[in-house]
Structures are given as C-alpha cells and as structure tokens.
C-alpha cells in the first residue's frame, strides 16, 4: 500500500516505535490482514502517561496563540492528506470510501472549530457583595487526558476530543479501538508534521483493551477520561475512574427513535430515514434503531422506504459505487442476524433484505409489524435494519420513543410547527433531528442523557469539558 500515512508503528512520546509483539488488523470487507501494529502493555501505557505529564508542565504554559497555530496546521495538513486518510479508514473499517472522505471533513471541522474557539475561553469579573474584595475567574486545562475511542468513526471520534484538549492546554494519551488503529497513527503523523511537541499526544496500540482501559481510568496522573463506546464499558470505566475522582465525559450507546407523523412529508421522511440509518451500515451511535409510524401513513411510508432501501448498493468500501459496506466482524453479523430472526419469530414481515449476503455483508433490511417485545425494540442493533412499529396518537409515539434507558439522539418528521415544538421538547434525548436525519455538526453540542452519556463534544461546551474554572479573590 503506497500511502505515506500508513505506518505500522505506535506513536509514543514523540517517536514512532515498533515491537516484536504485534497484532493484526483485519479488513472487514475481505477478512484479510492489512498490517500489524505493536501490542503494547500496561507498563508501556504507564510510561506514556508519565511522559504526557512531563509534557503538560510546559504545554499548559504555551501561549494560546501558538497552540491555535498548531491546531490550525493540523486542520490544513488533514485537508492535504484527505485521500490518504480516507483510504486507510476504509481499509480498516470497511465503510464506503465516499463516507470515509466525508468523515475526514466532519472530523476536521472540529479541528477548525476549536482552533478558533480556543481563543475564547473567557473568564469573568464578578461583583463583590461586601466591597472589600475583587472577584474574577479564569479557565485552565485539566491536565493529562486519557481518550478511548471506537472503531466506527476512526478519525472523527479522535478529532473532536483531541482538538479541544490541545487548545485547552492539555496533553493526551489515546487508546484507539484495536479494529481501526491505523487511522489514529496517521493522525499522529499529521500532528507531528504540524509541530505538536513531544509527549503532548501519544497513541498506544494494543489488543489488551481492558488492561489499558483500567490503567487510563485509575492512573493518578490522568486528570480526565473521555470515552466513546458502549454503555456497559462506560459504566466500568466510570467506576474505575471514581477511585481518583477524575473528570469524565462519556458518549455511550443509543436506541434512537424515528417518528413519522401523519402530517409529515413522506418522501422527505424516507430520504431522512435512509440518511440516518444506513451510514456506516447502521453502525453509528446516533443511527436510527426504532421507526414509529402513525397508522394512517404506515403503509405508504413502509412501501416507499422498502423501495429506497432495495436500491442501495452493497459492496466493498473501495468500490466506486458502494453505498453500504460490511459489518465490522462476525460478532456484529451474529447480533444483526439474531435481531432479525427474533423479530420474524414474533410476527414481523420482511419487505426487503433480511439475510446475510456473504462474509460480513448483510442486506439492508426493512421489517414491518414488529412486536413491542422484539429484541430490536430494547437493544441497539448496530446494523442495516429498519424495524417499523405502528402507533395511533402523538402521546403514544412519545411514550414509545422514550421507553428506553438510552437518550442519545431522536428524530421525527412533521409539517406542523406547533407539533415540532411540542415533540422536540418531550423527547428524552440529548439531540433531536426535526425533519432531518443528519444532526452532527461541530458547532453544536453532541451528547446524550440517561444512560447515553455525560458531557458534550463540539460547540463552546466541548472546550469547557477540558478546562477547570479557577476563582481568584483579591483583598483590597
């Protein structure tokens, strides 16, 4: 593979390093190895954390203008190497190249945003009640940040953590998903080229996710832990981080509802449903999992959706016409298959798809008459499956949508402005898509409520996640 960013080494304390102990990274489209990376240990992780702490002592005092210039350079270099980054991402994640190119732009939008937002980490002057003091606040970076990122967005999930951390004056130790670490290493190379100082950003590659995760969560030199992944793993990391009272921000699992009301533009709803469901073959945390359609438009919506889904092209991510790539591995295929079989056993009808094509490729699927006790109603499928449920009233739709411990994203379609306001306020989720199936934006706060997470990424709030507020009291 001729790609200057494809590096089969970890990046520790400003140096690319190799190891005799390695692990393979598999292309889910072909189930063949694309390369190896060092399988680092907990001891390696401890040393990297120490180097990050040493680097922080100087990085935190680097003028914000200098930090801004470096982060801006990361943005510019990412644009220059867009094609290379996208090709690496498609090879290790399987997603269509068009989606990978889009992810480079999406992730890089956070870099651009925070390169500017970092200039605006304002403090305050507060009136004194007794007149004998002067009160002000300043914001300072929290310190060493540990980041653990998932495989489904190998670049964007890093960029939207790294950029605000660097701008806040923090250093970062990253543990990327073992399925997709090459994109993280490529980003490390770009950071090196941009002038990020030694030790400020390190990428620890390893198959020992539990061991390294525990070290990152419990090491006293780490001041903050940021994690994107499953609620189950997030709960474990949160308990471990509690030992040292760390700052945490978690973006966890979802079970996103998609509501179609009888006053919706049905064609627009179908278009939004496809956009919100089939990106990365349905393997996104904000992917629609449950479709609730009002009974008077149920038949029209289900037929039009099935036709649109039937036309999607399933292919290797590097194929020019690919629209839906493979699932990440055999375990993902097993879960999707289980959810389809369970729904069918409880009365669901398959309008299109419903079967494995080959390898890790599963046919995009639309199922109607799905029972309320089907697994897909309560569990996140993480696959290309549309499960359609029927409802009668607005109140019933809201109740069904909120009947989950998760609350990351929710979507609905309606042309009634009053209903849009009511439903938008009533849905229990951190992000609501109203007449759109795409909600992610660097300038908006990304995050969930309930068991879908803590904290926000992106927007002005995303910078605050990496900063402490310090109160200064002057006697006069």
UniProtKB/TrEMBL annotation:
- Every Aldehyde dehydrogenase domain range: 18-471
A Pfam entry, by short name: Aldedh
The superkingdom listed in its UniProt entry is Bacteria
Q: Which residues form the active site?
A: 251
- InterPro entries assigned: Ald_DH/histidinol_DH, Ald_DH_C, Ald_DH_CS_GLU, Ald_DH_N, Aldehyde_DH_dom, Aldehyde_DH_Superfamily
Keyword list (alphabetical) reads: Oxidoreductase
Matching entries from PROSITE patterns are given as: ALDEHYDE_DEHYDR_GLU
Q: Which SUPFAM superfamilies match?
A: ALDH-like
Protein family according to the UniProt entry: Belongs to the aldehyde dehydrogenase family.
Q: What is this protein called?
A: NAD-dependent succinate-semialdehyde dehydrogenase
Species the sequence originates in: Sphingobacterium litopenaei
